[in-house]
Amino acid sequence: xxxxxxxxxxxxxxxxxxxxxxxxxxxxxxxxxxxxxxxxxxxxxxxxxxxxxxxxxxxxxxxxxxxxxxxxxxxxxxxxxxxxxxxxxxx
Length: 91
Hints:
single chain, mainly beta, 5-stranded mixed β-sheet, 1 helix
C-alpha cells in the first residue's frame, strides 16, 4: 500500500522497499499520519538510493522509479518520465 509524502513542489507515493517507506505504515488511515518535508522532489531524489516510488509533480507530470530487486523474478518497469508536453489528448 502506498504512503504519500508531501514535498515542497510535489508528492511522492512511497511503496514497500523504498528507503523512505515507514517501518510501521498506517494501512487503515486511523492514525492520521501526515508525512511531509520542506525539501523539493529533486533534492529527495538526489539524496536517495533505494527507490520504489511514484513521483508526482502535478497531474500531468509523473514518473515511476524502481531500482529494488523484484520478488518472484518480476521485471521492473521502465523508468520513463511523463511530462505531457508532446501529447494532444482528445479525451
